[in-house]
Structure formats: C-alpha cells, structure tokens
What does this fold into?
Amino acid sequence: MSTRYQMHGAVAVITLDNPPVNGLGYEVRTGIVGGIDRAQADPDVHAMVIIGSAELFSGGADIREFDTPRATAEPTLHTVIRMIEASPKPVIAALGGVCMGGGLELALGCHYRIASRSAQIAQPEVKLGLLPGAGGTQRLPRAIGVETALNMIVSGATVPATQLEGTALFDALIDGDLLDGAVAFARKLIAEKRPPKRLRDISVNYPNAEAFLQFARNTVAAVAKNLPAPRKCIDAVAAAVFKPFDEGLRVERELFMQLMQTPESRALRHAFLAERAAGKYPGLPEDTPTRKIERIAVIGAGTMGSGIAMNFLSAGIPVTLLEMSEAALDKGVAAIRRNYEASLKKGRLTRDGLERTMSLLRPTLSYDELAAADLVIEAVFEDMSVKAEVFKKLDRTMKQGSILASNTSTLDLNRIAGVTSRPQDVIGMHFFSPANVMKLLEVVRGERTANDVLLTIMRLARRISKTAVVSGVCDGFIGNRMVEQYLRQAFFLLDEGASPAQVDRALEGFGMAMGPFRMSDLAGNDIGWAIRKRRYVEKPHVVYSRIADRLCELGRFGQKTGLGWYRYEPGRRDAIPDPAVDALIAAYRSELGLTARAVGDDEIVGRCILALVNEGARLLEEGIAVRASDIDVVYLTGYGFPRYRGGPMFHADAIGLYNVVRAMHRFAANPHADATFWQPAPLLAKLANEGKTFKA
It folds into this structure.
C-alpha cells in the first residue's frame, strides 16, 4: 500500500507511504487521486491533508520508475496537481523533514501548506540535468519571489523552511506533532469557511526583471558553461514572469522535454542511478546480519591516517589512533585539530562541537590499546612487508570478531589476509586523499572476506557519508589500475610532441577536474615512480615511456618539492610551465630518435580516455568490477571525471563501442604506438561486434 486514507472528523488524511523516500511512483499517484475522489464524494469531509512522515514528505520522482512507461503513465503528477487545484474542498500539504523535487511541486499545487520547523525543501532537478517539470518553475516564483526561487531552482540547493517563513509558500510552521497541527489547521479553515486558494492565481510583479534575468544568464554562462539545464531553468522562470500561467506551464514542459534528450541529462541521470546501484552487491542479501561498529582504531597518523580518523570522529564514532613515535602521533592529532579549527572559522562547526568531536579521539603508542575496537584500519607505508607485520600484530592483538581493514591502494589483499589466522575478517578500505574530503571508498573484497564483513563496511560507508564501490583483488583495484593506463598514454604523448601543459589543457577542456600532470604533481610523482619500478620487475614485457622516471631522478616530485612537471612558488599551488621540463622532454625525445610532431587536443583526449575504457572492460571481464556503472562511480567520485559525461564507461557507450574500437585501431597504426596497448579487450571487441553497450 503506497498511500493510506484515514478520517479525523471532517478532515480526510492521505498519508504517503512509499519507502524509502516516498517517491511519487504510479501507485502513489493513483493513491492520491483515489483519496481525493473518495473525499470529494463524502459529504462528511470538508478538507483534506496530504502528509508523509515526520522525517520525509516526499523525495520526488520514484527512481525505480526512471525510463519506464510507469513514469509517464496517467495519472501523471500534472494530472494529480490539476485535480487538487480543481477541488472545491481545501487540500493542505503538511511537510515534515525533507520535501524536494516533485514532492515540492505537489505541495505547491495544494491550496495551503504547513510545515514542521525542521523541514527542508529543494528543487534539485538541475543536478540531473533537468528542470522542475510539474509546475515548479511557475508556482515557486509566485510563492517566494522570483529571485529566491530562481536561486533555488538553478542551484538545486536545500533550504530550511524557517528561511522562507512569511512567504506565500507556508501558511504556518508547526512546532509540535505535524499531523495534529495539520488537522487543527484544517479544522480552523473549515470553521472560518476559508475557500481554496491557488498559487497559480498570484500575479508575478518583479521590477527590473529583464536586468536580473540577464545577470543570472551571464552568471550561469560563466560557471556552468557545459550544462544546458541552468540556462533552461532561467528561461522557464522568465516565462513565469512574462507570460500567463498556462502559457508558462507550456514553456516549462517544452524545456523539460528538450533537456530530457540532452546527453548531459542522460549522463547525470546515469550517475545518480549508478551511485545508488553501487551500494548493492549482487548475491549479498540485504538481510545478512552485520557486525556492530561502535569503536574504530586507525594505525598511522600521517596525512591519510588522520584523514581517515576524521571521517569517524565527524560521525560521532570514537577512534583510537596509533603511531610508533610521540612526535608522529602529536603531529597527526594536531593536523586533525587544525582541520576542525578551519571548519570552525568557516562557521561549519561550533567550538563546543569541535571539543566534543576531539574528545572522541584517543591517541596511543601501544597496540594493546586497540584490542577492543570493532574495526581497525591500517594506513601505513605502501609496502607489503610493512603491512604484513602490522597484520600479524593485529591478529595477535584484536578481539575475535574485529574487522581488520587495509587502506592499501595497490597491494594484494589476499596476501595481507594470508598472514592472519582470520582471513574472513580482512577487507580493503581504500580511502582517497584527502580522506576526510573525498567521497569515494573502494571496498576491496578478498577471496575469503565474509559476507557479513562486506555488508558491515558497505553500511558503515553510508554512516560516514562515503560512496562505496566494491572491487575484487588485483594490482591497483579499479581506480589505480585504470589510471596507470591513462598515465602511460599521457607520457607517450610527451614522447611524440605534446607538452604537459597541452595535455592537461586538453583533458581539462574535456571536463576532467585536473589534467594528468597537475594530478601527478599533486599526488607526488615519487608514488608513481615506485609503482613503475615494481612493474619493470614484475612485467618486463610492458612498454613504458621513461620520461617520468627522468623527472623523478632529478628529485622533481611535485608540489611538495616545489618542482615537478611544473614549477610552484612557495605557498602557492599555481602550476607554472617550466622550460627545464621542456628541455628534459626534448633531450629524451632525441635519445629515442623521435622528432616532435603536432599532437591535436582530440587525439590527446581520445587516447587518454579510451585507455581508461579499455582497461575498464578488462576489469569487467575479470570480475574485478561488478558493473560498468561501478567503474563510472569510481571515476566520478574519486578521479575528477566530469559528471555531465557520466563516467568513462557511460561515455564509451554514448559515443558507440563500434566507434571506440575503430579509434583504437587508428591509434594502434601510429608508428610510435605500442600496438599491444591498443588491442581491444575481448569484452569490448565482443560488445562492439554485437552492437551492444556496457550497460547491462
């Protein structure tokens, strides 16, 4: 049952009951219409209330119906709202907790609206490359004013109900029980014989509207140049200002349908669904019992370890932080406090909140202090022998049932688990730096990791506001294994004639948050150098450019040394092209007997991005990644891939796998190319040959 109908005297209450977010799916829409019809036909009913729960009115469209016929089946949300507006008996929306998207549009279509003081509202459709499509762009400006409404619609930001108190959006804010307050408000309307009122009947009067809208267009053009939705949002709100209501609705609908067909919206909707799918692991029942996580231990108080600790402290979970020396421990604790002090200065944290959070941190120099933790996360130097010693100590120290996690970014988790007597309790938790900021968490399932351990960590990730993606065990897991191929192509491009700045510029123009050379300078070029040294021994047949090694041999490790692929001024992070690097590259080309050629931006983007795609296909084929969309989530949340392109695998589907394979054959024909690099992965070749896509 997606709605419930109850009588409270002369007031009919229609309760939305469609977990988890009261999505306005087909059953909910028909339930609302059925409730309205029932109330209209009952002479004892004089008013209606539509309500959700105390925590949630409605999160909008039901994502389970995205791209299915049920999403547009009658009664649509437009039809539901028209029925409400036409009702001779007043309909009150009672908003508790979250009310967003179509949920807010439903409320805007009601005659009256009340809300709990804790309610939060939003029109977040722009984040899916869309605009509110059920009258939101027309009714919201009439309710709260053009400027406030436009800011909400274009940004998709969530706004507290109290911020909009006194506008036509809310007729009352309720301090106590929402249902009791809604019924009391309805009875007051009945007693006072107040008729229904409609937001659509309010005239929009905004002086200098043209100037404001032009200012908004200029601003959006500067900050969202690759996204059509914000511009269309402005056009729809402009229709609310300058056109009659029904004409404005028609404009809104046309713009909405246009946006639905854009590649940007398809990509953003894919990303939205992909992130939700990533939290579900096939074959792992949701009712699998999980382990209780009440205390955390973190080994290593360096940049990564202290960042990991902050995730749990911020979620109110006590953390014991272990280091080998007092100096290293003090430095880690100071870094944590410094980060929280920065949040305090920005108004994101109170002084009491800061001290309360810091009180959850217990620094120690003894492994014995970790024994009672439910989860211990190792964040020590990326070396197998070092990590093996740590896990041997943990095996001796930790209580039975504790989960033993490694933050390794590349090493074999099965070997790490193998040094313990409890490999079923071992799992990988690969955080991304800075760990207290980056949303991605690669959860690495070993060959003997228990189901309850995996599900416990997946749910814990939600508690600490991380997007978790499960990876199997391989060198580099999903993200770093793919990025290695991306960087190999970036280095080959330097050999052939491109410059670091040109490669970065081309890929940032494609939408990457940071080009590969700026990214390497930020992460530390010595990290990649250490991995390549290992590769030269383990995989001597694999071809690498040695230009990055030459850079590292000069001690140019990036921002931390002030010199890398770029030059950096003290205290600044601006990447300044360095003639010394150009000379280094020219000398290396000469050593190889290569003459620099003109390399176009399209070639740069094609080679680097398709390198990701081909390795992603191999990961899927090997079962390291469960879904192509999981790979997309890794790159969207951890590697700065442009969200409006949906991720590397979605991007490949969008341009067509047939075209991807043809491009790879073209790259392989380059006389300086490593032809084996461009051999399409068997899965990619098969799908391209069958005219299929990565999307299952």
Observations:
- The CA atoms of residues 547 and 588 lie 7 Å apart.
- Residues 601-622 form the longest helix (22 residues).
